[in-house]
């Protein structure tokens, strides 16, 4: 089945998206139709022409444009008033509404100068027809196509009812205010939506590629892996790649949220969308344009916006029943009191509102716009704010889940520590003086042969140490290497089954001297990680490895505690090393010597105590524990496609700096969602009571309803202005 993607213009709330989605889905040949209100992207699968889709969308009162990377106007955020004027004059519906509003103003002027009443009424009816035609047409087409009522239908009925009872100025004002308020909502939603679309404008469309004859300017989409491109000083990097020549600082804030430029040298990775400093870099392309880090971020963010938060799903279900219920209530209010209790149906000469008028006012109040927009605009803004700071939320559900987290479990190696340990000591049991003798070096060489093919940080530290001393070729790489349940490796070297592993493993399977135990325990008390080596016949010695703390670990743990989040350390390392690291960063709850299944079990136990628990790891080695947590958080996502795919939340930078901000952002978003829903429902309840008592007019009701919609929209955009711990609005 062919998949087509279109961008829809003219939507002002999530109810519009549901209406279009339902209408397109009914077209012959359509197998699937999904419209994401947050991104305004309509995805259609099936054998269906663009013309058929466009016709259906326009029938329902909206506009369809081809999906693209973004127009020039999308690459900047306009000032509010100029942008609003552009938006109002960009569609026929709002132009007609503005013309109708002008005619209403003229009719009021006619009344003020005592011109004939029929002239004033004619102008008001003409204004009503001009502003109301698009609304009525959309309402009738939706009723015909989708067989349901929407807000436009309620407003059309209310306006016709007002004309029937002679409230001409009220009918015209009602429709004009509704049309303008809908446009204001649509523009506000567009501004929130554009914060994501801006990401697509970060990477340049062309690149300067090196050729045998010099340089040529080519489209970024034409670059192939292995091509070399020149990045002039001060320009954006067009592609993911590896620096092949040049030294300089690169501003990675658009991708990772890091506030300071990062020094780059040959061999270092750079990302599309980041900004080169004041030197020229030569970069070898490592990913195609469609798969670069920036495009992966945009794709994941759009998918995240399509994933509804639980609160949003509740609101959608509520609104589905709320609108028809309000329609039924309005009919009952208009009919029952006059028929059963003899109350007046029409307005009385003394100004008392009749029950028909009150029923019409209820129709106006019945619009669920404020309610249905209360959650999605907040989720969009929070996801956009996170993306701007180098934090990817995979969906509104994970944003909500992170707001409830009261404990965070950290892996140690590579998370709280740098993950680039170094060998600090190695010693053979045959060494008498503890110096770097030939026998000690042989222990390191044997360990290197076992660890040669492992990607674990400790293994790489052993291989680097052996290579620096010229010992990496003394033994051939081990064959048929087996991982021993996360606590060691075993393989054949020159026909002998050699083993490297933790003291815990050797205590059980490889007897060794008390003296070696004392050496190992002394190293572990200093916070070092130890590994023992056996050549297949006897235990040969041990190695000690130390991993430096990340500079931000202590500050991040302190900030999390200030947010009421309890930090927990889960590590496979020995208890002494774990306690040393925990003491430095301020973690009191430490679980050491864990196997992978132990970490998963402990995460589940933490969930039983705290209900919501986050697990922070590298997204690869800690996959089971990440999956077991309420929220799995991977760090270093900019350099790891696996990390971006594994976790629920991804910290793009190589560090923990953004973790407290992510928690604060999630909690702010959740507070705003609750505020918006409560404010919308309370306001509805108040105006329903006022309408039943006859104390409100229809135009006041629409003004209040749309005013609430705008307030919840602006409130929902507050996450975009949230500042990080350093007072910075953007990363």
UniProtKB/TrEMBL annotation:
InterPro entries: ATPase_P-typ_cyto_dom_N (IPR023299), ATPase_P-typ_P_site (IPR018303), ATPase_P-typ_TM_dom_sf (IPR023298), ATPase_P-typ_transduc_dom_A_sf (IPR008250), ATPase_P-type_domA (IPR059000), Cation_Transport_ATPase_IB (IPR051014), HAD-like_sf (IPR036412), HAD_sf (IPR023214). Gene3D superfamilies: 3.30.70.100, Calcium-transporting ATPase, cytoplasmic domain N, Calcium-transporting ATPase, cytoplasmic transduction domain A, HAD superfamily/HAD-like. The keyword Transmembrane applies. GO terms for cellular component: plasma membrane. PROSITE patterns: ATPASE_E1_E2 (PS00154), HMA_2 (PS50846). It comes from the Bacteria. It is a multi-pass membrane protein. Keywords: ATP-binding, Cell membrane, Hydrolase, Membrane, Metal-binding, Nucleotide-binding, Translocase, Transmembrane, Transmembrane helix. One of its GO terms (molecular function) is ATP binding. Its EC number is 3.6.3.3. It is an enzyme of class 3 (hydrolase). SUPFAM superfamilies: Calcium ATPase, transduction domain A (SSF81653), Calcium ATPase, transmembrane domain M (SSF81665), HAD-like (SSF56784), HMA, heavy metal-associated domain (SSF55008), Metal cation-transporting ATPase, ATP-binding domain N (SSF81660). The chain crosses the membrane at residues 94-112, 118-136, 321-340, 360-385, 677-695. It is found in: Cell membrane. Residues 2-65 form the HMA domain. Belongs to the cation transport ATPase (P-type) (TC 3.A.3) family. Type IB subfamily. PANTHER family: CADMIUM/ZINC-TRANSPORTING ATPASE HMA2-RELATED (PTHR48085), CADMIUM_ZINC-TRANSPORTING ATPASE HMA4-RELATED (PTHR48085:SF5). This is Cadmium-translocating P-type ATPase. It comes from Bellilinea caldifistulae. The lineage of its organism: Bacteria, Bacillati, Chloroflexota, Anaerolineae, Anaerolineales.
């Amino acid at each position: 089945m062919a998949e087509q993607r279109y961008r829809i213009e003219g939507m002002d709330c999530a109810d519009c998206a549901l209406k279009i989605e339902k209408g397109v889905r009914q077209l012959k040949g359509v197998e699937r139709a999904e419209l994401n209100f947050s991104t305004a992207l309509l995805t259609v699968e099936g054998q269906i022409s663009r013309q058929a889709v466009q016709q259906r969308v326009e029938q329902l009162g909206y506009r369809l444009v081809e999906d693209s990377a973004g127009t020039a106007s999308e690459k900047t955020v306009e000032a509010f008033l100029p942008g609003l004027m552009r938006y109002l004059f960009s569609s026929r519906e709002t132009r007609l509404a503005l013309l109708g509003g002008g005619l209403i103003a003229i009719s009021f002027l006619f009344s003020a100068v005592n011109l004939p009443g029929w002239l004033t009424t004619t102008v008001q009816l003409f204004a009503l027809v001009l502003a109301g035609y698009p609304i009525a047409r959309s309402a009738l087409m939706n009723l015909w196509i989708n067989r349901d009522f929407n807000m436009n239908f309620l407003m059309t009925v209310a306006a016709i009812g007002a004309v029937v009872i002679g409230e001409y100025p009220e009918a015209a004002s009602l429709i004009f205010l509704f049309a303008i308020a809908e446009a204001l909502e649509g523009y506000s939603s567009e501004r929130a939506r554009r914060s994501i679309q801006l990401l697509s404008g970060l990477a340049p469309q062309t690149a300067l590629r090196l050729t045998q004859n010099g340089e040529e300017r080519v489209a970024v989409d034409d670059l192939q892996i292995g091509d070399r491109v020149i990045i002039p000083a001060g320009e954006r990097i067009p592609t993911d790649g590896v620096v092949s020549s040049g030294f300089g600082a690169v501003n990675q804030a658009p991708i990772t949220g890091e506030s300071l430029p990062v020094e780059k040298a040959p061999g270092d990775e750079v990302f599309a969308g980041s900004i080169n400093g004041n030197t020229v870099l030569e970069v070898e392309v490592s990913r195609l344009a469609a798969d670069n880090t920036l495009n992966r971020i945009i794709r994941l963010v759009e998918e995240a916006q399509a994933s509804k938060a639980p609160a949003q799903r509740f609101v959608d279900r509520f609104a589905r029943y709320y609108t028809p219920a309000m329609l039924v209530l309005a009919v009952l209010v208009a009919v029952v009191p006059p028929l059963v209790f003899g109350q007046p149906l029409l307005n009385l000469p003394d100004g008392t509102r009749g029950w028909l008028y009150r029923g019409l006012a209820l129709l106006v109040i019945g619009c669920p716009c404020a309610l249905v927009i209360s959650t999605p605009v907040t989720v969009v803004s929070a996801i956009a704010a996170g993306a701007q700071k180098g934090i990817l939320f995979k969906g509104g559900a994970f944003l909500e889940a992170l707001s409830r987290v009261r404990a965070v479990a950290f892996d140690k190696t590579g998370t709280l520590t740098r993950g680039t340990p170094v060998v600090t000591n190695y010693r053979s049991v045959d060494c008498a003086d503890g110096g770097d003798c030939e026998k000690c070096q042989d222990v390191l060489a044997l360990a290197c042969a076992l660890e040669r093919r492992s990607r674990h940080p400790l293994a790489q530290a052993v291989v680097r140490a052996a290579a620096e001393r010229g010992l990496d070729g003394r033994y051939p790489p081990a064959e048929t290497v087996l991982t021993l349940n996360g606590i060691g490796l075993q393989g054949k070297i020159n026909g002998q089954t050699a083993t490297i592993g933790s003291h815990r493993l050797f205590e059980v399977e490889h007897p060794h001297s008390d003296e070696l135990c004392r050496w190992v325990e002394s190293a572990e008390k200093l916070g070092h990680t130890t590994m023992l080596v056996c050549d297949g016949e006897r235990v040969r010695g041990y190695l000690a490895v130390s991993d430096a703390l990340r500079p931000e670990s202590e500050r991040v743990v302190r900030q999390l505690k200030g947010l009421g989040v309890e930090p927990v350390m889960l590590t496979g390392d020995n208890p002494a090393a774990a306690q040393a690291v925990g003491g430095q960063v301020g973690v009191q709850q430490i679980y050491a010597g864990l196997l992978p299944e132990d970490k998963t079990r402990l995460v589940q136990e933490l969930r039983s105590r705290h209900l919501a628990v986050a697990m922070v790891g590298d997204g690869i080695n800690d996959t089971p524990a990440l999956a077991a947590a309420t929220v799995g958080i991977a760090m270093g996502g900019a350099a790891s496609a696996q990390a971006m795919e594994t976790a629920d939340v991804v910290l793009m930078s190589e560090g923990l700096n953004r973790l407290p901000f992510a928690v604060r952002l999630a909690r702010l978003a959740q507070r705003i969602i609750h505020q918006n829903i409560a404010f919308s429902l309370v306001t509805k309840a108040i105006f329903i009571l006022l309408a039943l008592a006859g104390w409100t007019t229809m135009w006041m009701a629409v003004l209040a309803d749309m005013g609430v919609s705008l307030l919840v929209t602006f409130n929902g955009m507050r996450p975009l202005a949230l500042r990080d711990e350093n007072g910075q609005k953007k990363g």
